[in-house]
Design a protein that fits this description.
Length: 87
């Protein structure tokens, strides 16, 4: 188990590994999280909360989450839309 966890976090220095981001869910809403490269955080769009990633480790403790303002949500949505168009 520890070896598997270490393997998932090895590539996290440059963000979050795709496998790990597919596994993690919001601790409050239990909905999938989206990785935002701009803020280096995991975003729960269901409840509008952003969870920081510190030293490659997602901090999913509810008190660490920050409520995202409506303006910030539209910026992250626009960034996600443009990245999808570039793929």
């Amino acid at each position: 188990m520890v070896r598997a966890s270490i393997g998932l976090l090895i590539g996290a220095g440059n963000g979050l590994s795709k496998t790990l981001s597919e596994i993690l869910v919001c601790p409050l809403s239990k909905q999938p999280l989206r990785y935002c490269e701009e803020t280096n955080s995991l975003i729960s769009e269901a409840i509008g909360v952003s969870f920081p990633i510190k030293d490659g480790i997602p901090c999913l403790v509810p008190k660490d989450g920050k409520i995202i303002e409506a303006d910030d949500m539209s910026k992250t949505d626009d960034a996600a839309d443009s990245s999808l168009k570039n793929d």
